[in-house]
Every structure is written in C-alpha cells, then in structure tokens.
Fold this sequence. Notes:
The structure is a homodimer.
Chain A: H1 2-12, E1 20-21, E2 28-32, H2 39-49, E3 55-58, H3 65-77, E4 85-88, H4 91-97, E5 101-104, H5 111-117, E6 122-127, H6 130-138, E7 143-146, H7 162-169, E8 176-179, H8 187-192, E9 197-200, H9 202-205, H10 210-224, E10 229-230
Parallel strand pairs in A: 2-3, 2-9, 3-4, 4-5, 5-6, 6-7, 7-8, 8-9
Antiparallel strand pairs in A: 1-10
Amino acid sequence: MVFCFLFYSIAERNLLKGVTCILTSVKELHIISNGKMPIEQLCEIVMDIHPYVTAIHLREKQKTARELFQAVELLSAANLPLSKVIINDRADVALVTKAGGVQLAFHSLDAAIIKENFPQLRVGSSIHSYEEGQQAKENGTDYVLYGHVFPSQSKPGMTPKGLNELTRLTQLAIPVIAIGGITPENTGQVLHAGAKGIAVMSGVLEALDPLSAVKAYLNVLKNGDGYNGRII
Amino acid sequence: MVFCFLFYSIAERNLLKGVTCILTSVKELHIISNGKMPIEQLCEIVMDIHPYVTAIHLREKQKTARELFQAVELLSAANLPLSKVIINDRADVALVTKAGGVQLAFHSLDAAIIKENFPQLRVGSSIHSYEEGQQAKENGTDYVLYGHVFPSQSKPGMTPKGLNELTRLTQLAIPVIAIGGITPENTGQVLHAGAKGIAVMSGVLEALDPLSAVKAYLNVLKNGDGYNGRII
C-alpha cells in the first residue's frame, strides 16, 4: 500500500514515464466491441492498444457461446492478457476462458448471484439511472457502466443523460465508468463529474488511427487522477 | 451396486410398484420445453408429471438469462427437484440455479470444456449424425440427444434420421436419448434400436392430458428395460 502510494506519487510527477503502473486509485479506459467488426480486425487493433487500456469488453450480442470462446482465444493470441477481457452477459464463457470479468445488463443474471457463485469474476453492471446505480451497489457489483452521457451515434435520437445525473451518481461511492459519446475533448468533464473512468466504442474502434485515439484519451485520463495501465 | 441389482430385479418382477427407484441401467424420459408455452402453464404440467420423468429441459432460446433464472425458480416452486432441471446452452444459469445439467448444441461451449470446468453438471450434447456422436463421446459428454428420429412437427419438411442410423449410433457405447416424433406407439422400436431413453416435446406438453401421455410413454419404457423414476 505504501509502495503503491509512493509509486503513484512519483508517476504523478512524471518521473517514471514508460513504466507499467497498476493502481486502484487511477482512471480506467474500457474499450467496448461493437458487434459488427470481424474479430480478426478487432484483434489487429487490440494488438496495438492493449498495453494502454484497462479492459476490452466483448459485447457481441449476436455471437454464440462457441463464437465468443473462439474470439477470446484469438484475442489472447493477439497478446491481450485474459485479465483484461470482459465478456458481456455470459458468465460461463468468462469462467471457462479465465476472462477477468463479466458485464451484466438488466436482462442478465443478477450481480449478487454472480458474485456469490463466481467471486473470481470482476462484475460490472450496465445502468441507466441513479436508482439502478443504487440497486447495483446493493447487489455488490464492482463497478457500474453508466450512459449514455453525451449524444452517441449508437443511441440515435435518444436523450443523453448528461453530466448532472452523472455527478449525482458518483456520490453513491461505487466506481462509475461513463459511456456514450465520450471524446478526448469531453473526457475532462466526465472526470470532473467524479467518474472512475470512461468506456469508448467508436471513438477508438472506428478511428482512422486507433492507437493515436487511445493515446489522446489517455492524455486526459493521466492529467486527471492518473491512469490504470502503462504510463506513456 | 449389489443392492441396486437386487432392487432392480425385484422391481422388474413388479413386486415393488409405487416405490421410487433410481437406477442407472433403466430407461429415461426427458421432457423438452417448446419455447412457446408460458412458464406458468409449463409449471402446472410439471407439477403433475415430475415424479415420472427423468428431466425437464428448459429449451427457451428467446429467453434471457434473467428470465431463465426466474423460470427455474417457478419450476422449483412447483416441486420439480432441481436435479431434474436441464438448461439449454447456458451453463452459467445451470450453475447458479443448482440445476442438474446443461444441454449443449453445436453453437454452445464444448462439452469437454464444460466437464473440465464444471464437473458437477450432467452434460448432454445434441447431435444429428454418427460422426457428431463420436465427437461428443470423445469430448466426454454424459449422453447424446439424437434426432429427429421420426417425422416431427417441429422439423417440418426435414427428412428424419430413422431407426437404422439410431441403431448404428447406439453401438458407440454412449447413452443415446432419442428425440423427434416419438409416440408411445413407436417408443418400443426406439428402445429396440438401443436407445437409453426418449425425449418428448409436443407429445406431452401439447397433449390434452399430459399426465396420461407421460404414463403411456412410461408403460412402454417400463416394459423395455425399466424406467428411471418412480415405478407406477
């Protein structure tokens, strides 16, 4: 703990650029797959960006369990550490692939039940309101994924939640990862609202240069409270 | 083992009618849900028939994990022992509900992977050919569900596999549960082909009197090699 604190302080002073730094107190960068991109293409991007991100979420609602399993195998072959893999909904796939966690939606198994049965999994809950955040916290989820905060191309025509509701949610004392329309330009506002991190889909996966996009997000995350990954 | 053998012999002589008899050497009767019937209606039927069947399969492809979980809770409240519940595809739902097993299709996780990670689950593999049966056996599945053997209303226009292929499959020395168009009238032929048991969907769930239908199947199963459930 003391070591971590010291390490963190030093990193803040930019004295240890280029050294891997895993800290619980720093900001997180989650990348969410979009369910459209071929896994081989996702793997090519992941091969470049994985040292700089907290997690890669496989959010592939049309894929079968067998296809998800194969996707994790491909990602692992692309050097993505399994601890950084988060599987959407399917706890069984997460368990057998030794993935780091599972992301639960309203239609998924309850977070409390997953935590009770599979304590080895990091559990995230996707929520859309303060009340759902309260419920998720009571259920013992490890973090909530909240959105969409800003207008998002994956939620056309839907009113974004905005920063005020995000600020209210972060008072619940549960890590909040903000999602939806987040750009390097507005990431600072999200952090200022109290978010523990951000989750990005098209902002990285549809960028002309995904690695540069990741680094642009990272620069803001680092200038906030730090960053959960390699300091660049 | 000696006790089982003796018990079985006595039952065969009809000296112990009405006594529960769980034997590994006897025939099985699986009931498969059809994905259309409201769970409450399924529960009403299950409440009547469960003492006489080996397993109830929840094959509800449109249901979410949360809905499947709730369905198991309702079935359990209808007195169905959890050991008789088999969940289609979702091993995670089977695990957290303490269901007896999971039924795997080609698109599911591999039987070998499920057995390795969750040895507490009875694993069935749905197959459609001798070659798939060989593969399933190599993968360590506990039984195969093979069909459709006869013309079936749930497989309109598709050529049934027939009894010859079923007979060939039962040479693989893995328990074969036959499915597809099975009636009390043709159950004897299926047993003669070497099947360990039968799986029925509409023959019971769409019968005017499901309990009478179950008993009609049971009479044939008992007159074969016995029956895995209560002797009536």
